[in-house]
Amino acid sequence: MARRPLPRILTSGSDRIARSREIARTAADSATDVLHPLITITRGLRRLAATARAKWAATPKERRGPTLFLVAACVLVVALVPYGPLLALVGVMGAAAWKGRERPVVKTGPDEAELARLQGLYEALVPYFSVPDDPAPLFAHGGEWSSAFGDHTFDDDGRLTRLRIKYPAYFTDGEAASRARIEQLLHAKSGRGREYRFDWDEEGNQLVMTVLAPLPTAIAAQRFVTAPGETVLGFTDADTVQRTVPVVTAEGEEDAPAVVWRTGPRSTEPHLLVVGQPGSGVSSLLRSIALQALPHGDVLIVEGAGTGEYACLAGRAGVLAVECGLSGALASLEWAAQETERRLIAANRARQAGLPAPEDTKRPLWLLLDRPSVLTHLAAADDRTDPQTLLQVPLRHGRAAQVTVVVAEQFDSVDAVGEAVRSHTRARVVLGPASPAQTASVLGTEPHTTPTPDVPPGRGYARLGTAPVLRLQVPATPDPYDDAAPAAHRQAVTSLLPPRASALAPDPVPDQDLLSEPDTESTQQHAAVTAET
Questions:
Q1: Nearest 5°: CA angle at 325, between 460 and 361?
Q2: Is the pTM here over 0.90, yes or no?
Q3: Counting CB atoms within 10 angstroms of each CB, which of 131, 265, 284, 335 has the fewest?
């Protein structure tokens, strides 16, 4: 049977209805825009009337008569004043307009997506915070998350930035493995790629998870405001240290929370050990330490890798030597050990005679060793003295002799670090991406934060003695001869370099017999060290 076509009024009726609705909506929007002031004033008058009615209801009955008399007197005075009613009307309209203005809606709770995230996180914690014998479990499948979660804060993307968790008292929060499982779960469920800090309150059975902001990486090398014997290792979170130093950045001057390492006779952590991955900023930290030490002391650098990271310091005033070969390193470290003994003997004789210590024993001496394990391997192959054994005297007696030792090594060679270095370097720094186990093996304890897999150069952790583990960002101190580094940072390092030693004194003329020796480079470097010292 053939279908009959629908009447035209039925086929075009939907279009007419839609067009009518659009016209009505446009007219309503136009009317709302035109009548918006009147709507605002009307809303304000209604709110003022409601406020006045609430005030009148809250007034005691014995005070309503005087209040009514006072209001009537005010109305009479306004009526008798010239232009009084007009001014009163304008004032009331202004108050109504201010009272009836539209205010932004304040978010008072999580939305549906955030509620779903909190409920999912609650369900994920049930297997860890519940036992079958608990008569009233705080965590149970299908339970309410509001009984265990508090102080929850979300960012613009709907991810948690802060959360307080209340857990049962029988949870083994005193075991590191139990805490690590909870931290790993929260890290995975709250969003990867960010750094979290976990604060465990074992007395109150509460855990606070906080998302940490990234540390600033724009602070370049500069003259920091510190006292003699203080070295800025880097910068950390503002709520973990009590000291700030003024710094200059691209945005201007500001006060940054700094990790300050104190050396000298009264220091409890006179020596430093730095461990990191290749390209993590270990050489930048040693250059930063050298630039801060040169205004007040002398620096001796031993570079085992021989990559020329410290060539910019060679021949500078205050730099005794920059050794890259095994022979030069052994000669320089042997001299450093003898110099330490000489300072101890001179200071001891002065004290026995009742005199102050000689001035040549007060000037700090810094020994910076980058990757000494390479030299240890070469010494073992040539059956020569291990350079690290020559550090025993400076490490053991360096605090009294104003000698500071800084040793830098990579994770793949950290096992080659000698026992003397491990036992006397109480200040530790870990740079670059590292697992919690690797960080704990160097610092002695795991940090309270979860490191991210991708970190900028110079980013890591620091621990001074038995103090808490701090996040650390080393000041940008690149090699000024590295064209890949930012020009502003290279210029900052160049401006801090001391003048060349040749500009202060004429270069010694080398002996022709010494130039004819096979080990000419090492002999010349050793002669330069002896001549300058």
A1: 75
A2: no
A3: 131
